[in-house]
Amino acid sequence: MSFNPIHLPAIRSFLNQYYRTVFAFICLVLVFFYSKAYSYMLFHTLVELFSIVVAFAVFIVAWNSRRMQDNKYLHVVGLSYLFIGALDLFHTLTFKGMNVIPSYGYQANQFWIATRAMEAGIFLVGFLMINRKRRVNSDQLFLIYSVITVLITASILVWKIFPVCFVEGQGQTPFKIYAEYTVILVLIISLGLLFVHRNKFDQRTFQLLVGSVFFAILSECCFATYTNNYGVLNEMGHYGKLVTFFLIYRANVEMSFVNPMEQLFRNLKASELEYKTLAENLPGIILRFDDRLNCIYSNQIASGDRVLFEGTAGEIHRRIDAMLKVALRMGMTQNGELDIVVAGATRVYAYQIIPEVSAKTSQTNLLVICRDITASRREKEYLSSLLDTIPHQVWTAKPDGSIDYVNDVVCRDFGNSRAELLMDGWLQYVHPDDLAELSHKWQFSLQSGEAFMTQFRLKMADGIYLWHLGRAVPIFDAGKVSLWIGTNTNIDAQKKGQELRDEFISVASHELKTPLTSIKAFNQMLARTSDLVKMQSYVQKVDQSTGKLERLINEMLDVSRINAGKLQFNYASFDISQLLQECCDTIQLSTGSHQLIFRSPGVVIINGDRFRLEQVINNLLNNAIKYSPKAREVVVSCKTDQGGVVVSVTDFGIGIESRELEQLFDRYYRSDNAAERFGGLGLGLFISSEIIKGHHGTFWIESVIGEGSTVSFRLPMEEIELPSSHPESGFEYHDEHLRIWCNQEKGWLDVNWTGYQNVETVQNGGLQMLSILKKSGFKKVLNDNREVLGNWSEASDWAAKVWFPMMIAAGLKDMAWVFSPSIFSQLAAQKSVDESDGAANVNFFHDMDEAVKWLESQ
Questions:
Q1: What is the mean pLDDT of residues 273-279?
Q2: Which end of the chain has the smaller Cβ count within 10 Å, N or C?
């Protein structure tokens, strides 16, 4: 076979790169060869000491590079070689003939197999750690290796329980042979796993590890088959072990210590490439600034879009300049949002400024991440606008129950800003008596994820508690609650209506039971007597109770018709003065305690349902007698005024408190002053007021506690035509109900209302005020109601919800409202302002001089 000169360059390159290694290897071979020739003991000692030095070197490198070593396999294996070297040292010192440690047998063989088993086991266990995400705890690993080493040493030298491995004249024991084959099997498995995980190592390291395990297997094959501690196989086994340690040295020392920066820079380069790839493909804008606030990186520039950088990222740079300085000075992350006009459209960006401090140079760079949140902002605004249109309180809460949104209804009801409500929550407005139950149910829902629902009272901005129904449902994401959506619905009217109905049922049961009991009692007495005089008296009592029972039933039937909208009227012209006289005569016959005095104005013809109006008049007369037990007179009057007829019934009885007057016309309501002392269902005035409303009339009461009450109603006699034209100047208006003029000296609108008002007159007058206020440009109004009569409460809802907001939109700032003497007129005035959503400054007065003085001061 001839030598091919083509191989000379390859051989020369190999020698140039590895000549030191080759030289060292030749020297070692010569040393070991001549030491073997001189003494096997010397050969064994030199081989083992060399391998021990290499093992300790492997440990030193592994320990000092533990914080930068990212290959957990090399880390676990490298740290073990301190203890493998220590056990090999014991193997060397206990070798037969060394006489360093007292020997009772062949302990060196025991240390050998224990060390090789530990080494093979660690080769295998290292693969269990290779995919571990958490960093290996070096201190714990050191402690584990220490314990294993101490146990092996104690079992051989102290306890002497380790199995015998070699018998003089016989060779290796079966335990030793089987243990060697087991070690070989473990090493073969490790070699297979090494190929499976080859992607975890670079090519050079992989080759060195494969060579190390391969020579370890060859070494163990030699030690599994030798019969003499001084034979050739024993010698070859030691050479294999020596190569194994040398390759581990190259794999661990060179790759983790001699050339660590190459691996580090390779990782950094890969990380930088990944970072740029990620940054340049993100939909947002990524910027980096140095400590002089110069932009040193932009993913927009990197993608070549200089125009976009100047248009958007450049504008962001200019807009957040102050926040960049704050982040640089304080070293803290800053967050915010920006509205930026891009191509004529407004875009919203959320930005985050993150300081990046270098530990080596103490230089601080700033990373800025900007996300386009325009779509989500619009969706949020649309949703917020939608929720604000809902007439209920709407709120949302985080999974832990903290409130993160409330709609405008919540703010308006509680008279607080959204920011304050989000900070403090709305539970502070819950009635103290309802708070414990509400909190218990809310906590249960938070823990269980079930829907929340309960009733409670909430304190409104005016200090009044109103009943609400609270409901909240969870929104789930990936099986967990991500949001709670809740509503609080005002059920105060229904709640109180239910309470009134319950009370009515109780009262009705009692009121119906009374005449029935009387009828039953007098029928029993009739059955027991034959006295005609008594029988006639009993029959009369039965008739009276039957009549009372009939009235109660008719009242309940009328209420049912009113609720169903089926209360019908049969209109005809008749003389109401005559009807009043007939009613007084009829009631007078049934009572001897009061004198009914009727002051007739003569013939007064109206168009109405005579039967229903008779029902109203009889109810008023009976109430007047019932609620004035100590008086002797009831006065009935009738007069015509401003195209209408006013009927009044005056008693001199117990009177009614002003706070209860308006509620007297509610169904089932009975005055606290009379409920316990007088019977009745509390339906009479409600039915009467509905009959009067059906005739387009009005109903009101004037009362003084302890002096009596006057109940009045007004019915129109003819259709009133309201003026539709204005004076040419347009700055004054007057008719029989109203006069408006511009007070140029004072700089306000003077308005004087007179006489009886209804929905039509109030609406016409309100629109005239609105028109003149717009034309004059005035911001103040002096509203005089001192000459207003009766009740215009039917128009108060229109005034609150329609007219008053229109006046504010027209420029109204201040209004001095002088009350009418009529309590009902005063209540209507307050209601028209209290229920409006306006922000005008309105004050009520009973004295004109005080009203003028206040308005002048505004």
A1: 63
A2: N
